[in-house]
Automatic annotation (TrEMBL):
<dbReference type="InterPro" id="IPR032710">
    <property type="entry name" value="NTF2-like_dom_sf"/>
</dbReference>
<protein>
    <submittedName>
        <fullName>Nuclear transport factor 2 family protein</fullName>
    </submittedName>
</protein>
<dbReference type="Pfam" id="PF12680">
    <property type="entry name" value="SnoaL_2"/>
</dbReference>
<dbReference type="InterPro" id="IPR037401">
    <property type="entry name" value="SnoaL-like"/>
</dbReference>
<feature type="domain" description="SnoaL-like">
    <location>
        <begin position="8"/>
        <end position="102"/>
    </location>
</feature>
Length: 107
């Protein structure tokens, strides 16, 4: 089984690919994603959310465990959007199968 750090690296690598199915396969069916003040529940909502996200580049600066069992990836995001580049925290929670069950993206 892969480590949380490897799963996080896979997340960012797959997020930039043109074939998004491997990206979506990383999420649990009942996943919760919080981004930009909105909450998206379930894989269908995540698919809709990702269609609205502009193409960006990710530069993972650090990955750390939290005391709650989650993992935080401090990541620089750059692309064609106001304020680019920006440093964001991606807080990943994985289920027992190693799928993303919760993702919180915040400054």
């Amino acid at each position: 089984m892969t480590t949380p750090t490897e799963r996080i690296q896979d997340y960012f690598a797959l997020a930039t690919q043109s074939d998004m199915e491997p990206y979506f396969a990383q999420f649990a069916p009942d996943v919760v994603v919080e981004d930009d003040g909105q909450t998206h529940v379930g894989i269908d909502a995540v698919r809709a959310w990702r269609r609205s996200v502009p193409g960006v580049a990710y530069d993972v600066r650090a990955v750390a465990d939290t005391s709650t069992g989650s993992h935080v990836a401090t990541t620089e995001i750059s692309g064609d959007f106001p304020g680019s580049p920006v440093l964001l925290g991606f807080v990943f929670t994985f289920d027992d199968q190693g799928l993303i069950s919760r993702l919180v993206i915040a400054p």
